[in-house]
Write a structure and sequence with these properties.
The protein has helices at about 1-45, 50-65, 90-120. With about 120 residues, the protein is mostly helical. It folds into two domains: about 1-70, no CATH class; about 90-120. Helix 1 packs antiparallel against helix 2.
Length: about 120
């Protein structure tokens, strides 16, 4: 059983390592995104097409779009359980009832066949 424990521990460490690696990659991508947004903003300010304040807002907007929103499922824990709506069509309900009836009939047929085989032997 020690082998199983080692395997679980290695799987856990692999998961932690992958999560850490993904976090590092996301951080570096956000840094690249910020640098690119800053470069574009600087060029637009230099050409007079954007004010310095507009450039700051532009960079902030780009960074907000690059980060996951609080309601998204990536990496955040939900504040309440996700609601699941079950739709029950009249037609699908009828189909299920027919399937159940058909299965009941098959069971009755098999029981009868079993009784018949028991009588013969």
């Amino acid at each position: 059983m020690a082998g199983f424990g080692d395997m679980v521990q290695k799987a856990f460490y692999l998961g932690v390592g992958l999560a850490s690696y993904a976090g590092e990659k996301a951080g570096s991508k956000l840094t690249e995104l910020r640098a690119q947004a800053q470069k574009i903003a600087d060029e637009l300010v230099e050409r007079g097409e954007m004010s310095t304040e507009d450039a700051r807002r532009f960079i902030d907007e780009v960074m907000q779009q690059g980060q996951p929103s609080p309601g998204s499922s990536s990496g955040s824990t939900p504040t309440e359980p996700r609601r699941i709506e079950i739709l029950d069509d009249e037609e699908s309900s009828q189909e299920r009832d027919e399937d159940v009836d058909r299965l009941h009939q098959q069971v009755r047929d098999l029981q009868e066949e079993l009784r018949r085989l028991e009588r013969e032997s």
